[in-house]
Amino acid sequence: MTVEIEIIPTGRPPRLEDRPLEKRIGLVILATDHTTEVDFQRMVASDRLGVYVSRIHYANPVTPENLLKMQPALTEGAALILPDEALDAIVYSCTSASVVIGDRNIEAAIHAAKPGVPVVTPMAAAVKALKALGARRISVLTPYTIETSRPMADYFAELGFAIDRFTCLGLTDDREMARIAPDEIRAFAREALAPQSDALFISCTAVRAAQVAARFEAETGKPVITSNLATAWACLRLCGDDRARPELGQLMTKPYREG
């Protein structure tokens, strides 16, 4: 039996706001990434600020050659985030590829799809973070091989940072990097931090280091910057969120300076 149900249209269209949320951050992440999205939902997303994600193809192992192969996909990856709508910031979330491809090349590729949007890379954000903390002597911990770590060491050195100790774990699969247990991250971080360093940088957006940053700082008395902590901090500040959140680490109490 067919039941006739009357469907009644409203007498007027609904009022539309300019945006569902006040601020919008785009993430261009690797297809294999387990960590960036989770970290940004925990540290960045709110009722005021939305995080929107696009994934691009990536094939392990993590080598300079494979990292460089992502460059052609960056424009399309950015274009797929809320097409034809403006973003307040966009992150390319791969630290080692940021070094190999280069911050300016990444910015140009993303601007081809999203003109004028502030582009954040983990390395550029880490440098701003270290400067915000007044750190010039640093220790570095990466999950990569020596081959993949070397360009990062050169990157920091060319910018005038003194590297007291540079430690790498020798992994080649970013999915394994994401599976490093948090207590292991803290253990390796303690070994990697040279006593004379002003701060420790833990590289890789796959590594769950942002989860342990504040606890590590409490244990050592030294600030720690992680890839996802640095990009999250940069995005929050670019979106006008200047709240001090020491529970996430010392960096989240510092202002951000553009340029």
Automatic annotation (TrEMBL):
Keywords: Plasmid. PANTHER family: BLR3294 PROTEIN. The keyword Cytoplasm does not apply. It holds the Pfam family Amdase. Coiled coil: none annotated. InterPro entries: Ectoine_EutA, Iso_Racemase_Enz_sf, MaiA/AMDase. This is Ectoine utilization protein EutA. NCBIfam families: ectoine_eutA (TIGR02990).
